[in-house]
Structure formats: structure tokens, C-alpha cells
Amino acid sequence: MATTPEHVDVLIVGAGLSGIDAAYHLQRAFPGRTYALLEMRDASGGTWDLFRYPGVRSDSDMFTLGYRFRPWLGEKAIADGDSILAYVRDTATENGIDQHIRYRHKVVRAEWSSARNRWTVTADHDGETVTMTTNFLFSCSGYYRYDEGYTPDFAGTERFPGPMIHPQHWPGHVDVEGKRVIIIGSGATAVTLGPALVEQGAHVTMLQRSPSYIIPRPAYDGFADRARKFLPARAAYALARAKNVALSTLMYQLSQRYPKRMRIWIRSWQEHWLPEGYDLDTHFNPGYEPWDQRLCLAPDGDLFLAIRRDELHLVTDRIETFTETGLRLESGRELGADLIITATGLNLIPFGGVELVVDERKIHLPDTMVYKAMMLSEVPNFAFVFGYINASWTLKADLVCEYVVRLLRHMDAEGYAKAMPVRDPSVGAAPFFDFEPGYVLRSLDILPKRGDRAPWQLHMNYLRDLPTLRYGRITDSAMRFERA
After folding, report:
1. What is the Cα–Cα distance from 2 to 17, expressed in whole angstroms?
2. β-strands 128-139, 370-371: how paired?
3. Are 342 and 369 within one domain?
4. Are residues 323 and 357 both part of a single domain?
5. Three state DSSP letters for 4-42
6. Domain that holds residue 424
7. Domain assignment of residue 403, yes or no
8. Beta strands 101-102 and 35-38, pairing class
9. Which of 7, 91, 230, 360 could be disulfide-bonded to 133 (CB atoms 3.0-4.6 Å)?
10. What does each of the 484 residues of the chain score in pLDDT, given as a tens digit?
11. Angle at which helices 233-257 and 259-273 cross, to 10°
12. If residue 382 lies in a helix (H) or strand (E), which one and from where to where?
């Protein structure tokens, strides 16, 4: 005998940083509305529960990565992964959100019915199919595959007898003391891992195909520490948050407008931290302009100090093949290794790979266009969080959650059951991102498009999004509303 699927007013996919944020805003605004979070893993926290490699930390300050509604009270502005995970879970526990999480529920399909004005969502739960219905579907599942990191097809990997580890799948404790460790990569993960493994006694070589921009930054925020002495916690947090938003926005805008000058400034900071005569032209001279890819942070200059102490070596070259003793590079140089870490990136997957269907029509994401960078054209009652790449993820998550609350309030007030952005055919289309990291370039053909005019544009600018998403009108020529 068929049973009626469980129904909730709002269904959130993902119980990480964004999902907890969404749940808080929803239950605060609508205490009588039902909701649930479906989490594919067996624990909350998302990225901060998944990544367990040595030294894992934020690459953004916690005064902007933290929630707007809950002050970050930790000592460090650049915090370690365990502290961030505790912050996210404490937020869920204090607000009763953890009671609404359904673990080991991987959403695989969501079907919208205009006749019923609701979604039917199918999830896999420990091998069994679970079906739920909802009026509004909110995707907070991040942007990359949790079950698979990206590793290029290196030649000769079968010849190397030692362990090869991708940081996304760190196997618990790994003894590296006294061992030769090669980290392949030049992004934030490699920049984090290198100094952390040095601290554990490893002899570290960081092998990069091409350099990245790496800048030193204090792990502690002196301004925030002083503000805490004179102001209540919330006021000090808000002030530090505003200061850091302004500084990060300024740095990004300067990088976009005056890239040559920013390149010179970054080089001068690096020269201050590195040994005299260090070959910056080879190892710290990227082939792209600042902020064409995300800048990497070295808290308290840890990477530069490890280089200065001759404990970490940078090699800029390409891999010809793995060997029985390590790697042979295209230059002919041989690198010996006991352990090789492939910090080579992520596999991007939109909305956790959920198949979206609207009135029996399967949605092909590249045919859709993003509305205010948080909804999809011709997809009703659906929103998603995709945070900033050039700033803290949570800044955008907070704005999207606030907008969804305002949208639902408007629908309640007017008696609407359906809200759907409809694309004007005259709006020109462009790739989702104007950004150059490898994981983005590899995935442009599976992503929605952005438009050439509002409200279809995608801004990587918090101060530009703030008036639109927090205070702007809900109604416009692109949004269609229907009553039940």
C-alpha cells in the first residue's frame, strides 16, 4: 500500500555552513513553518567536517566567514578547521537546527508539479529510496563533489611504491616525521599543507606547475581585539566584519583596476618575508593578474618562514612521469619522495548533482540563466547558495538567505504559491564565471549561464549585492508569481 510522502514547507539540501545559515533564517522568520535539512553524509559541517588534512583552516577571516547573526568569539581571525566546525555545529545546536537534520540522505532527483505547486524530492538513504514533498526547495550543497577530488592523469603513477594521498581523502593520522614529502599544487590547500607538515617534521617540497599569488596576513586581527575591549561582543564583531569587508573589496577592486601596481605591491610584501636573492621571478610570478584566481593566504607568513628556514622548497616545473623513487620533471630533474600529496583541486558539481525536473521536463543547466545569482530561469520555487570566490562564502550565503525570507514573506502576503524567474530572450548569455581556476574552467559546460544585464548578472561584490538582496524590490519584470 502506497504511503503519502512526508511534506515540509521548505526543504534544505545540505547541512554545512550554508544549510545551517538557511535554517536559522527560516525558523526565525517563520516559527510555524516546517522544514528539514537533508544531508548526504553522516555528520553536519560540510567542508569543515570533510577536510581533515594537517593544518586545514579558513582562507578567509572569521569575521566575514562567520554568520552575521552570531559573533565569532575565537582568538584567531584565520581559524583552524576544527574551530570552524565547532562554530557551525554550536550554531545548529543552540538554535535547535540539529533536530531537523536527516543524515545519510543523498538527494538524487527533484520534480516540480505546477498542478500541485510543489516539489517531489527523491533521496537515497542507506540504499533505500525516500520521498518527500515541499513547497520550496533550497539548495545549500556547495559546489564540489564530496566523494571525489580532482587528480590529473599523471604518467607512471603505478611505478611509485609509496602512498599517494589527495587532501580531500586524508586517511587520518599519517606519520611524516623525517620523510620526504612532495606536495603537487600551488593553491590554498598546498599553501596550507606545506607549513603544517614541516611542523610535523617532514622534509617538504612544494611542486607547482605555475605559481599562485600568496600573501602574508596576520592570523590575529588586532583591530577586532581592540574593539572587543571597549564594545559588546556583537558590536565589536559587526565593526570588525564591516572593516574586513571594506578592505577585501578594496583590494579586489584595486587588483581589477590596477593589476600591474598590485603585482608590484604583492611582490614587495613577499620580498620582505623571503631570503635575500630568492628567485621570485620563477616561483612567485604568476602568469595571470591578481584576483583572476583567488589569492592564497599565509597566516603570519608561515609559508615564507618555512622557506627562509630552508625547511620547505618550492620547485616550479612540470611532471614528466612518476618513478620508482619519486618524480622526474620535464627539465630532467629528479625529486625523491616517500609520500606524494596531490593537492590538485576539486571536481565541481552544481547542486550536488541533483536532477531537476519541471513539469516532466528535465532541466539542462547550461540552458538556464541565473537570476540574482541565486535562482534559475524557468525553475519555480527554487533557490541556491553559491558564495563569493573573491571573498568569504558566508557573506553571500547570508544575503541569499535573507532574500529567500523576503521572497517567502511576499508570497504569503499576496497569496502566491509559485515564484519563477522568466528569462527575456533578448538578454545576452555569458559563462557563469569570469574566473580562471582550473576547477571552474573544467566545469563551465555543466553550469548555468549569467546574463549581460540585471537581474541576470553575477557580481562577485558583496557591497554591490547588499542593497539588491537585502533591501531591493522583490517584484520585477523577470519574476513571475502565480496564485494557487
Report:
1. 36
2. unpaired
3. no
4. no
5. CCEEEEEEEECCCHHHHHHHHHHHHHCCCCCEEEECCCC
6. 6-146+347-483
7. yes
8. parallel
9. 7
10. 457 899 999 999 999 999 999 999 999 999 999 999 999 999 999 999 999 999 999 989 999 999 999 999 999 999 999 999 999 999 999 999 999 999 999 999 999 999 999 999 999 999 999 999 999 999 999 888 888 888 889 999 999 999 999 999 999 889 999 999 999 999 999 999 999 999 999 999 999 999 999 999 999 999 999 999 999 999 999 999 999 999 999 998 999 899 999 999 999 999 999 999 999 999 999 988 888 878 899 999 999 999 999 999 999 999 999 999 999 999 999 999 999 999 998 888 889 999 999 999 999 999 999 999 999 999 999 999 998 888 899 999 999 999 999 999 999 999 999 999 999 999 999 888 776 555 565 666 788 999 999 999 988 889 999 999 999 999 999 999 999 8
11. 120
12. strand 382-384
Q: Is residue 234 part of a domain?
A: yes
Q: Where is the domain boundary, 346, 365, 392?
A: 346
C-alpha–C-alpha distance, residues 269 and 215, integer Å? 7
Q: What is the CATH number of the domain that holds 329?
A: 3.50.50.60
Is 42 exposed, middle or buried, given 0-12, 13-18 or 19+ CB atoms closer than 10 A?
A: exposed
Asked if residue 476 and residue 364 are part of one domain, the reply reads yes
pTM: 0.94
State how far the Cα of 107 lies from the Cα of 351, in Å rounded to an integer.
Answer: 10
Domain assignment present for residue 322? The answer is yes
Closest CA to 26 of 111, 95, 119, 120: 95
Choose the final residue of a domain: 324, 346, 368: 346
Q: Residues 319, 207: contact at Cβ < 8 Å?
A: yes
